[in-house]
Automatic annotation (TrEMBL):
<dbReference type="InterPro" id="IPR017853">
    <property type="entry name" value="GH"/>
</dbReference>
<feature type="domain" description="Glycoside hydrolase family 3 N-terminal">
    <location>
        <begin position="49"/>
        <end position="392"/>
    </location>
</feature>
<feature type="signal peptide">
    <location>
        <begin position="1"/>
        <end position="25"/>
    </location>
</feature>
<dbReference type="InterPro" id="IPR001764">
    <property type="entry name" value="Glyco_hydro_3_N"/>
</dbReference>
<feature type="domain" description="Glycoside hydrolase family 3 C-terminal">
    <location>
        <begin position="429"/>
        <end position="638"/>
    </location>
</feature>
<dbReference type="GO" id="GO:0009251">
    <property type="term" value="P:glucan catabolic process"/>
</dbReference>
<protein>
    <recommendedName>
        <fullName>Beta-glucosidase</fullName>
    </recommendedName>
</protein>
<keyword id="KW-0326">Glycosidase</keyword>
<keyword id="KW-0378">Hydrolase</keyword>
<dbReference type="GO" id="GO:0008422">
    <property type="term" value="F:beta-glucosidase activity"/>
</dbReference>
<keyword id="KW-0732">Signal</keyword>
<dbReference type="InterPro" id="IPR051915">
    <property type="entry name" value="Cellulose_Degrad_GH3"/>
</dbReference>
<dbReference type="InterPro" id="IPR036881">
    <property type="entry name" value="Glyco_hydro_3_C_sf"/>
</dbReference>
<dbReference type="Pfam" id="PF00933">
    <property type="entry name" value="Glyco_hydro_3"/>
</dbReference>
<dbReference type="Pfam" id="PF01915">
    <property type="entry name" value="Glyco_hydro_3_C"/>
</dbReference>
<dbReference type="InterPro" id="IPR002772">
    <property type="entry name" value="Glyco_hydro_3_C"/>
</dbReference>
<dbReference type="InterPro" id="IPR036962">
    <property type="entry name" value="Glyco_hydro_3_N_sf"/>
</dbReference>
Length: 645
């Protein structure tokens, strides 16, 4: 009897506790997907402490992060910098497990706010072993689309936005296959000087082509619904990723192409050349915008309140979040990090919402906390940043689906994506010379020949073919770092089985003359580079490229294929070549080169960049008064396919 008398009040207490817990769960509107997004944001922000809000504004590199840090600091985002991988040759499953482990740390924090993991996927999922590597943007800018609005088959004046949209969709699938929902792409720089080490990340010197190519955002994020408000971020579910338009603004216009330097141009020039692609990106619902390291007329973009807040956020009505570049706020001062508290103050006040710290997170958190508590930065600025970050997370369904699975693992490097990359390669190639005149073309080459020579440092080097931002930040030389097809392998597969192929990387002229070759294919160009390491004042090909051209093309009919991230010095050698092809940085699918070389498909690419005669002419862009190019903007010879398809 005594036991039953005790159990009645206990049951009542238990009931009250359960009821209170249920009421609390119901009260958490931010966890209810049926609630309007603004209601969810408001409810969550009302629950957040200053520490949790600043945690959301912090992005860290995976190498300095632990599950405990994610939980205890409510860190908003993680990233993999260039080459930052779980371990070499990690599989999709390895990536998913790593991302989920960190995410579980975030979900176990007081409010369970999921983190967003970002990565540079700038020409496919380029950090990841066996991913499809697409041509870099400079090549995609050279693609052209057949007009569907006329009876004739006229080529468009600008690029092929439908192709880059498909590339964006394929990239999104491969990125999601590894559990990652956010990419730092596309780069919508307008490169005005090829001496810049990031010129290959730019679609063109012409902002109109760059604007057309922002269609990749619709591929990455999904097509914006017809009734969507302009400027509001949009991601169409678990097969799509949040995109990032970068680098705001004027990164491609620096003096002499010096990376992270000063863009000297008046406001009308900035708005008419470097800004237009941001209009298109925002209209397409781009989720984030990354600020440029560079300055505009001496003012660092990372501290430019006028452009970041008043123009991007207030005038253009961008509603996603603004993110810094890697240690971007550190570089507000010279030397970098010399007054970090000032840098934090200046960057946050400029309108940066999420800071890619990415290493010393406690210093950033402590300094920003101090600045807010001592009224140097108003709480309204913090709330604006957090509201924007949460808006992106809610809009992409991160609260409903924070953890990745292996359902898309087979998308990584899939044959369908490799076929798409191959199509992109053949459409990106620009034929600059084909015989001494139109009546005596060398291309397309015959597949059946007694003996052919393949020469050059880039003919059998997948790393060179892919360029920078491939497996590592700066890229690699060689064929053992990922899966793909070199140009030599593609030639071997394309020619008739009876054709003898001789490969000699740098043959001397006597060897060439004595072997009775039917023709030669010479593949030369630049070594790999990224960012500042690619800045060049001379723009010469890597040795022994010039020697190889001279030795081979002086002795036998030859086509030279240039693998480069930009136009390079070629004028002294053009006369000795029978044909010349600009192949840019084509990526893993070398068969795209042989598709047009041997006439299975026609050449259709057109220069999206002016090809200069010598570097003393630079900068030189179409429309300049001193315009005197070797090959003008828009130039590109065509061929007819040799077989019906």
């Amino acid at each position: 009897m005594g036991m039953s008398r005790i159990s009645i009040p206990l049951m009542g207490i238990l009931f009250l506790c359960c009821w209170a817990a249920m009421a609390e769960a119901e009260y958490m509107k931010y966890k209810d997907p049926k609630q309007h997004m603004n209601v969810r944001i408001r409810d969550l922000m009302n629950r957040m402490t200053l520490g949790e809000k600043i945690g959301q504004m912090t992005q860290m590199d995976r190498t300095v992060t632990t599950v405990e840090i994610m939980k205890n600091y409510s860190i908003g985002s993680l990233l993999s910098g260039g080459g930052s991988v779980p371990f070499p040759q990690a599989t999709a499953e390895d990536w998913v497990n790593m991302v989920n482990e960190f995410q579980n740390g975030s979900l176990s924090s007081r409010l369970g706010i999921p983190m967003i993991y970002g990565i540079d996927a700038v020409h496919g999922h380029n950090n990841v072993y066996k991913a499809t590597i697409f041509p870099h943007n400079i090549g995609l800018g050279a693609t052209r689309q057949y007009s569907k609005h006329t009876e004739s088959t006229q080529l468009r004046l600008v690029g092929d936005p439908e192709l880059v949209k498909r590339i964006g969709a394929a990239t999104a699938l491969e990125v999601r296959a590894t559990g990652i929902p956010y990419v730092f792409a596309p780069c919508i720089a307008v490169c005005r000087d090829p001496r810049w080490g990031r010129c290959y990340e730019s679609y063109s010197e012409d902002h109109k082509i760059v604007q057309e190519m922002t269609e990749i955002i619709s591929g990455l994020q999904g097509e914006l619904p017809a009734n969507s408000r302009k400027g509001v971020p949009y991601v169409a579910g678990k097969n799509k990723v949040a995109a990032c338009a970068k680098h705001f603004v004027g990164d491609g216009g620096t003096t002499k192409g010096i990376n992270e330097n000063n863009t000297v141009i008046d406001r009308p020039g900035l708005l008419s050349i470097h800004m237009p692609a941001y209009y298109n990106s925002i209209i397409k619902g781009v989720s984030t915008v990354m600020v440029s390291y560079s300055s505009w007329n001496g003012e660092k973009m990372h501290s430019n309140h006028n452009l970041v807040t008043r123009f991007l956020k207030d005038t253009l009505k961008f509603r996603g979040f603004v993110i810094s570049d890697w240690q971007g706020i550190d570089r507000i001062t010279s030397p970098p990090h010399s007054n970090y508290t000032y840098s934090v103050l200046s960057g946050i006040q400029a309108g940066i919402d999420m800071v890619m710290v990415p290493l010393n997170y406690t210093e950033f958190i402590d300094d920003l906390t101090y600045l807010v508590k001592n009224n140097f930065i108003p709480m309204s600025r913090i709330d604006d940043a957090v509201r924007r970050i949460l808006r992106v997370k809610f809009s992409m369904g991160l609260f409903e689906n924070p953890l990745a699975d292996l359902s898309l693992a087979n998308e990584l490097g899939s044959q369908a994506h490799r076929d798409l990359a191959r199509e992109a390669v053949r459409k990106s190639l620009v034929l600059l010379k084909n015989g001494e005149n139109a009546d005596s073309p060398l291309l397309p080459l015959p597949k059946k020949a007694s003996r052919i020579l393949v020469a050059g440092s880039h003919a059998n080097n997948l790393g060179y073919q892919c360029g920078g931002w491939t497996i590592t930040w700066q890229g690699l030389s060689g064929n053992n770092h990922t899966t793909g097809t070199t140009i030599l392998s593609a030639i071997t597969a394309a020619v008739d089985p009876s054709t003898e192929i001789v490969f000699a990387e740098n043959p001397d002229s006597d060897f060439v003359k004595s072997n009775n070759f039917s023709y030669a294919i010479v593949v030369v160009g630049e070594h790999t580079y990224a960012e500042t390491d690619g800045d060049s004042l001379n723009l010469t090909m890597a040795d022994p490229g010039q020697t190889t051209i001279s030795n081979v093309c002086g002795s036998v009919k030859c086509v030279t294929i240039v693998i480069s991230g930009r136009p390079v010095v070629i004028e002294p050698y053009v006369a000795s070549m029978d044909a010349l092809v600009a192949a840019w940085l084509p990526g893993t699918e070398g068969q795209g080169v042989t598709d047009v070389l041997f006439g299975d498909y026609e050449f259709t690419g057109k220069l999206s960049r002016t090809w200069f005669k010598n570097v003393d002419q630079l900068p030189m862009n179409v429309g300049d008064s001193h315009y005197d190019p070797l090959f003008p903007f828009g130039f590109g010879l065509t061929t007819k396919p040799t077989v019906a398809r």
